[in-house]
Write a structure and sequence with these properties.
Chain A: Keywords: ATP-binding, Nucleotide-binding, Transport. The complex is a heterodimer of chains A (about 350) and B (about 280). By secondary structure, chain A is of the alpha+beta class. The two termini of chain A are about 45 Å apart. Chain A has nine helices and 20 strands. In chain A, a hairpin with a 2-residue loop joins β4 and β5. By secondary structure, chain B is mainly α. Chain B has one domain (about 45-270): MetI-like fold, CATH 1.10.3720. Helices cover about 80% and strands about 0% of the residues of chain B. Chain B is built from twelve helices and no strands. In chain B, α5 (about 105-115) packs across α7 (about 140-165) and α7 (about 140-165) crosses α9. Chain B is globular, with a radius of gyration of 23 Å. The chains are: A alpha+beta (about 350), B mainly alpha (about 280). The interface of A and B includes residues 80, 100, 131, 133 and 151 of A.
Chain lengths: ~350, ~280
């Protein structure tokens, strides 16, 4: 069984502080959606609201059309995997996994059978009789996963499930989680602050900041076409250069950056360009060249670092400190003047930040 | 040389003190109970052949077990509320719980004399609201002794249980709810078993305390509610029957240890992590 999750206009407060503002999100049946953001962005609050550990001040939570908003946590039928595993320390691995089945009034023989089958799937059946205290972090997380999956919930939620594991195990576990989730087709919400984790595991990712969703889309779109400066910075666009349009000639737009440098943009590539905008580029979207005649931002090169595929330069420009890459065949020296040429296919044009 | 034996050197004064002032006197006391010319266990036969003394033993066991059960129950509920309270209120509640401990046992037992006496607060109240026409005799009953001892020991159970309940992680309780356990099921299957270590410590403290109590049963129970402690005092200080008093002491030590062991075995069955 798998159901879509719809969150509508959810608002939540901790005491007088508003931690979630008018948040709406829909997760399709069988889809895995990540909530991604720094701590305090509201992602865990959202999860706790859906789980029923917190009450929203406004808004509704629908699972397959059924309103969960006023339901107590134990009636919501949601599988949860916690950051600290939250295993029952006094129960064996098998009893931990069978716990949810026991609450559903399933006979001891049947729940033992199902719990063992689930432990088999996560590769832990030999440890069925151990207490959680005798398990490693990875094993504990598998037990937590088995315990949440065995009740066959219509919705699974993960709260930073891998943040207590070491790097290698983290990658193995996220592949495993994704495979189990795919195989069961369970609708899932995955909370993390790790961008790589979110992008690698999810169908869609909601990037959150200050209790709002900044952009909700597939990892590909988020990575290549961020919708605003916040998301751009989050996905690694180091250079955000404010620009002002001076003239428009058909699809050609001439815009000016700080220091009076003029650049040409083509609306065929970027779509409608507003009068004031921000040019966003990663380091590899800004090419450093010694050719001072090239159309680009005049810069004074600072520290050079070797990346293997390119050199990277810290550059001082009239628009502030920027980061640009330069070719390996043509190393430039610190202290040299250079031009930083934006590569249109790797740049984005965004609305200016209001601040 | 010094390094290798440093541990022994440091522990020596305390160890010697324990041996000289505790182990030797206890051994000597228990030793005298086996010195009867009528046989090795004659002193114990004496004790158990007396219907009166058997009654005292049963009464003491009954009073201390009931006291333990009530103190744990009341202490658990209170500790649960305290553990769930926000920081500032929690400190206040803990101070309130510990406050009675600042006065002596005798003073606190005396308070019950004032409350339960014929002209006591409780009787005056009951007569005033018309529950009874004449004052009830509440002092010198088993109930009075139990009430006074529960009052004495509840702060101890609250203190031991607050720590244990605070250490139950919130997400474990939430995990239980997310798996469909009703609040009652979470309490029975998660919170109670995880509180077992605290319950054991509390039970041992209350049981040993109430089983060996002297002042409270003496004041509130009097001659009519004689317990092992008061009986032992009577044997030693009134009858000057030192062997009889030592026998009572030995029986109390053995019974206390037995009950404590039985409690921790019971606990291990509830929670395999409890030691």
């Amino acid at each position: 069984m798998t159901l879509p999750l719809t969150i509508e206009n959810l608002t939540a407060h901790y005491g007088p502080t508003k931690v979630l503002e008018d948040l709406s999100l829909s997760v399709g049946a069988g889809e895995l959606v990540s909530l991604l953001g720094a701590s305090g962005c509201g992602k865990t609050t959202t999860l706790r609201l859906v789980a029923g550990f917190l009450e929203p001040t406004a808004g509704t939570i629908l699972l397959g059309g059924k309103d969960l908003t006023k339901l107590p946590a134990y009636k919501r039928d949601i599988g949860l995997v916690f950051q600290n595993y939250a295993l029952f320390p006094h129960l064996s691995v098998l009893e931990n996994v069978a716990f949810g089945l026991k609450q559903r009034g399933i006979s001891p023989a049947e729940r033992q059978k199902r719990a063992l089958a689930m432990l088999e799937r996560v590769g832990l059946s030999p440890l069925a009789d151990r207490l959680p205290g005798a398990l490693s972090g990875g094993q504990k997380q598998r037990v937590a996963l088995a315990r949440a999956l065995v009740i066959e919930p219509p919705l699974l939620m993960f709260d930073e499930p891998l943040s207590n594991l070491d790097a290698k195990l983290r990658i193995d576990m996220r592949v495993e989680i994704r495979q189990l989730q795919r195989a069961n087709g369970t609708t899932s919400v995955y909370v993390t602050h790790d961008q790589e984790e979110a992008f690698s595991i999810s169908d869609r990712v909601a990037i959150m900041n200050a209790g709002r969703i900044m952009q909700f889309d597939t990892p590909e779109v988020l990575y290549q076409r961020p919708a605003n400066a916040f998301v751009a910075r989050f996905v690694g666009f180091e250079n955000l250069i404010p620009m002002h349009v001076l003239a428009r000639q058909g699809e050609q737009v001439i815009a000016e950056a700080a220091g009076g440098v003029k650049l040409h943009f083509n609306q065929d590539r970027f779509g409608q360009i507003p009068d004031d905008f921000v040019l966003a580029a990663r380091a590899d979207g800004l090419a450093a060249t010694a050719n001072l005649a090239a159309e680009g931002l005049p810069a004074m090169l600072g520290l050079r670092t070797y990346l293997g595929r390119a050199y990277q330069y810290q550059c001082e420009t009239a628009a502030g400190l920027l980061v640009a890459n330069g070719s390996l065949s043509d190393p430039l020296r610190s202290g040299d003047g250079a031009r930083l040429v934006p590569l249109p296919e790797q740049c984005c044009i965004l609305a200016p930040e209001h601040s | 040389m010094l390094k290798r034996h440093a541990g022994w050197v440091i522990a020596a004064p305390a160890t010697l003190a324990v041996i000289i002032f505790l182990v030797l006197p206890v051994a000597a006391t228990i030793g005298t109970t086996f010195g009867d010319p009528d046989g090795l266990f004659a002193a114990y036969a004496d004790f158990f052949n007396s219907g009166f003394r058997r009654n005292v033993l049963w009464r003491t066991l009954e009073i201390s077990l009931i006291t333990t059960a009530i103190s744990l129950f009341v202490g658990f509920l209170t500790a649960y509320v305290v553990a769930k309270s926000p920081g500032r209120l929690k400190s206040l509640l803990i101070i309130a719980a510990v406050f009675p401990l600042l006065t002596g046992v005798v003073v606190r037992s005396f308070a019950w004399l004032i409350m339960l006496g014929k002209n006591g607060i409780l009787n005056n109240f009951l007569v005033a609201i018309g529950v009874t026409n004449e004052p009830l005799s509440m002092l010198y009953t088993q109930g009075a002794v139990i009430a006074a001892m529960v009052y004495l020991f509840v702060p101890l159970t609250i203190l031991t249980l607050v720590g244990v309940l605070e250490n139950i992680p919130e997400d474990v309780v939430q995990a239980s709810a997310s798996l469909g356990a009703t609040p009652a099921a979470t309490f029975r299957q998660v919170i109670l078993p995880l509180a077992v270590p605290g319950l054991i410590v509390g039970a041992v403290l209350v049981f040993t305390g109430s089983f060996t109590a002297y002042a409270t049963p003496q004041l509130v129970g009097g001659e009519r509610q004689m317990v092992m402690g008061t009986l032992m005092y009577q044997r030693a200080m009134v009858s000057f029957d030192w062997v009889g008093a030592s026998t009572i002491a030995a029986i109390m030590v053995v019974l206390t240890i037995t009950v404590v062991l039985a409690m921790s075995r019971m606990a291990r069955r509830l929670n395999p992590m409890a030691t």
